[in-house]
Amino acid sequence: MAQPRTNLTINPQRLWDQIMETAAFGATAKGGIKRLTLTDDDKRVRDWFRAQAEALGCTVTVDEVGNMFARRPGRDDGLPPIAMGSHLDTQPTGGKFDGVLGVLGALEAMRTLVETGYETNAPVEVVNWTNEEGSRFAPAMLASGVHAGVFTPDYAYAREDREGKKFGEELERIGYRGAEKAGAYKLGALFELHIEQGPILEDEGKTIGVVQGVQGMRWYEVTVTGQESHTGATPMHLRRNALLGAARMVERVHGIALAHPPGVGTVGLVEVRPNSRNVVPGEVFFTVDFRHPEEDVLDAMEREFRAALPEELAPLKLECDEKRIWNSPAVKFDPDLIACVRHGAEQAGYPTRDMVSGAGHDAAYVARVAPTTMIFVPCLGGISHNEEESTTFDECAAGAQVLLNAVLEYDRRFAG
Amino acid sequence: MAQPRTNLTINPQRLWDQIMETAAFGATAKGGIKRLTLTDDDKRVRDWFRAQAEALGCTVTVDEVGNMFARRPGRDDGLPPIAMGSHLDTQPTGGKFDGVLGVLGALEAMRTLVETGYETNAPVEVVNWTNEEGSRFAPAMLASGVHAGVFTPDYAYAREDREGKKFGEELERIGYRGAEKAGAYKLGALFELHIEQGPILEDEGKTIGVVQGVQGMRWYEVTVTGQESHTGATPMHLRRNALLGAARMVERVHGIALAHPPGVGTVGLVEVRPNSRNVVPGEVFFTVDFRHPEEDVLDAMEREFRAALPEELAPLKLECDEKRIWNSPAVKFDPDLIACVRHGAEQAGYPTRDMVSGAGHDAAYVARVAPTTMIFVPCLGGISHNEEESTTFDECAAGAQVLLNAVLEYDRRFAG
User: Fold this and answer.
1) For B56-158, where are the alpha helices, taking DSSP H only?
2) Are the Cβ atoms of A231 and B382 closer than 8 angstroms?
3) Cα A352 from Cα A346, distance rounded (Å)
4) How far apart are CA A260 and CA A305, in angstroms?
5) What gap in Å lies between CA A299 and CA A290, rounded to an integer?
6) Residues B102-120: pLDDT tens digits?
7) Among the four residues A134, B217, B225, B319, which has the most C-beta atoms within 10 Å?
8) Residue A382: its chain B contacts at CB < 8 A?
9) Rg of the Cα trace of chain A?
10) Which residues of B are less than 8 Å from A357 in CB distance?
């Protein structure tokens, strides 16, 4: 045990340079990245990642759905590996940090271990999950879902993009359909570093989000039906204005979320029919997105929402059709891993905030089969899935350092 | 004066048959009409109309923008003619009655005069105005606008459809660019029979709308700007939700209209950006349509609307851009003509209701240059601009009879 245990320090400049270097694979004119999963650009960044990992002496394996694992042996190589990683695919007009920071931050942590010759008890792996975004092949988090047993490989292979190309064919085409069965060996732990994709850390001046879990999410679709009629010739009392009913539901969804902190509720998509300046809207379709860390509170929000529909619509002589189209249960991350993240942030001197992820991540699926948690760093204005996505040099460095610290702490405390 | 003055009766079956006969020119599978202005179908119905009028001994003249006038001389042919009519063009998925009833009802009234040999003091004309609908060539009421001096002929000629074809070229092509200057001779009066295009008459069980004028109309465009953000990762208190602001304005527009009866106010068109289920809307564009018979009340409604924008949007940290894009002043119809319509309806024994037209009509422009009024009959459910548009046999007959009665009353009282 000759290695120093607590002062391994990542190289922030090298991390930043690699973020900028890989941003060239699918770079957009506005400074973002368009690197849809299983495209030629995705192959280029995968090849780059494999070469970097192998140069560090890691063994890279690829599973049957393209998930990549770059492994450095531990002192006891029979222990389940401690994994860290995220995804290298992006949205069509994505930024430089979403997913990328989690993989390259992990690679930088790995490089630090290698350069210092630090020996972990357990093997350590850097993971690149396939198709986290789901932009090209829905649903999102497809291959971590296969890893976790949520989807079968055949389900994944059969997903089609808008041109009718299949996930399985494209995986073969770029040479990343591996031999290894997905989820065949258990991870001992997974730490996922990610940008927050929300404004909380920035708003409160905190550097590290200690993520407790992922909110439960429920999606609904509502169609409100009234009667389309002439705006000039239809007196107010004879209208059946579907948009007025929908507007009142936008207000109610907002109110229901406010009544259940820290829950959120959003009408994000609205289609008005016929959507003409001089026609009273006869039909409005809208979506509702409710999220909360507690399932029983989500149950209450759902009840209140469903009660609000007739309350608001019946007095306006409107009818409605409502259905829940998605239900993603809340995820609680592993307390031991959370403790290691908190320790790692304190060790590095960063102010933290406990938080719950509002968005879905690979870690949410992996949490079903392995102890898992996440580390968040701020992003400017909370803006993500956007070419303007921005996390600073120092924030990237902080995230990678806390990731390394947390992995080492976990290795010392739980893999010893 | 050998003719009976008060008991000329139109032939309801003949009127109905001609409505159904001409509905074949541009008939749609769903029982409506697609007869866009200056198309081959428009030429066919124009040719039919000309032939019918000439068979009755009328002289048909066509002005430089295609308006057709079928004239029967009066006893004193130097008097300005008493005109009745509307338009034969339709919406892309129009019904069988909008405009058509006004022309064919007038033709039936003319035929009744001819068959009974009734001699009017003034000449009587049946008018077919070109391009009332504005669906193919915007704006609507184009050729009655030229007649009234609102637009120049050259402005009309230069209007283009979506394929880049010009109004002037298409008018030439179908052979309906006449020699006569638009508006060259003054009409003594214009009576326009039309379906209500609203639900009031049906709702109150009245047969004849005695139209007092046309509401003033003002159109606005509003863009509300907030900040698009992730629905899951953005807490309620850090949102700048443009849709919430727009929803509150939908409510305010509704309330402002309710506070100023018989005014109406409508948000008819809404575009949410980016319009995605899991993105808090960053921008919403919507239109507002306010109408009222009194200009000073419209001024008040506009003031309240403009005050409501910052009241609703500022607390939500939203910005907005608002502009008035159209202002069509209220029109008051001629009291003498209105009296003749009321007399004509009483004479025929139909229950009436005074009303103000909520929609624009050729008569609204013509009112600038000649005494004008309108006669409304019910349409089922207030539905118009729709293939399901429906007015009954008896209602069509009632409208044409009241039109004839009103023209004769006007001829007796004011053209003597």
Assistant:
1) 100-116, 142-147, 153-158
2) no
3) 8
4) 12
5) 10
6) 999 999 999 999 999 999 9
7) B217
8) 229-230, 233-234, 238
9) 24
10) 232-233
Q: Cβ–Cβ of B198/A269 closer than 8 Å?
A: no
Q: Which helix (H) or strand (E) holds A413?
A: helix A393-414
- How far is the C-alpha of A135 from the C-alpha of A167, rounded, in Å? 12
Q: With 0-12 CB in 10 A as exposed, 13-18 as middle and 19+ as buried, what is B114?
A: middle
Residue type present at position B56: L
Q: Please tell me which residue of chain A has the smallest CA distance to B359.
A: A232
CA A384/CA A100 separation, integer angstroms: 13
Could you tell me if B222 and B309 are in contact, meaning their C-beta atoms sit under 8 angstroms apart?
yes
End-to-end CA distance of chain A: 12
Mean pLDDT of chain A: 96
Nearest to A125 by CA among A79, A66, A178, A65: A79
Yes or no: say if A144 and A133 are a contact pair by the CB < 8 Å rule: no
Confidence of residue A348 (pLDDT cuts 50, 70, 90): very high
Q: Write the DSSP string, B286-334.
A: EEEEEEES-HHHHHHHHHHHHHHHHHHHGGGT-EEEEEEEEEE--EE--
List chain B residues with CB under 8 Å of A289. 231-232, 277-278
Tokens representing residue A131 in the block = 């198709």
A15 CA to centre of own chain: 21
C-alpha distance from residue A331 to each of A211, A361, B139 (Å): 11, 11, 57
8 Å CB contact of A357 and B262: no
Q: Which of B30, B386, B58, B182 has its CA nearest to residue A229?
A: B386
DSSP-based three-state secondary structure for A395:
helix
Mutate to test the interface with B, among A214, A222, A258, A278 (most CBs of B within 10 A): A278
Q: At B76, phi and psi to the nearest 5?
A: -110, 95
CB–CB of A367/A212 below 8 Å?
no
pLDDT in tens, B317-331: 999 999 999 899 999
Q: How far is A257 from chain B (nearest CA, A)?
A: 8
Q: Does the structure show a pLDDT above 90 at A2? A: no
Task: Judge if the upstream peptide bond of residue B262 is cis by omega within 30 degrees of 0.
Answer: yes
CB contact (8 A) between residue A233 and residue B266: no
* Confidence band for B4, pLDDT divided at 50, 70 and 90: very low
Query: Minimal Cα–Cα distance from A231 to chain B, Å?
Result: 6
**CA proximity to B103, closest of B406, B408, B400, B354:** B400
pTM: 0.88
The closest of B403, B384, B394, B351 to B199, measured between CA atoms, is B384
Distances (CA, A) of B31 to B27, B193, B388: 7, 22, 7
For the record, the structure tokens of A101 come out as: 């920071």
Q: Is the pLDDT of residue B1 over 80?
A: no
Angle at B278 between CA B274 and CA B283, to 5 degrees: 30
Distance from C-alpha of A358 to C-alpha of A366, rounded to nearest angstrom:
17
CB under 8 Å to B87, separation ≥6 — which residues?
B99, B102, B103, B128, B129, B130, B131, B132, B133, B362
> pLDDT by residue (tens digit) across A321-338?
999 998 999 999 999 999
pLDDT of residue B2: 37
**Which residue from A244, A281, A358 is facing B232, i.e. has the nearest CB?**
A358
- Is pLDDT at A274 greater than 70 in this prediction? yes
Q: Is the pLDDT of residue B386 over 90?
A: no
How open is the CA angle A210-A211-A212, to the nearest 5 degrees?
A: 115
Contact B234 A277 (CB under 8 A): no
Q: Rounded to an integer, what is the distance from CA A78 to the centroid of its chain?
A: 30
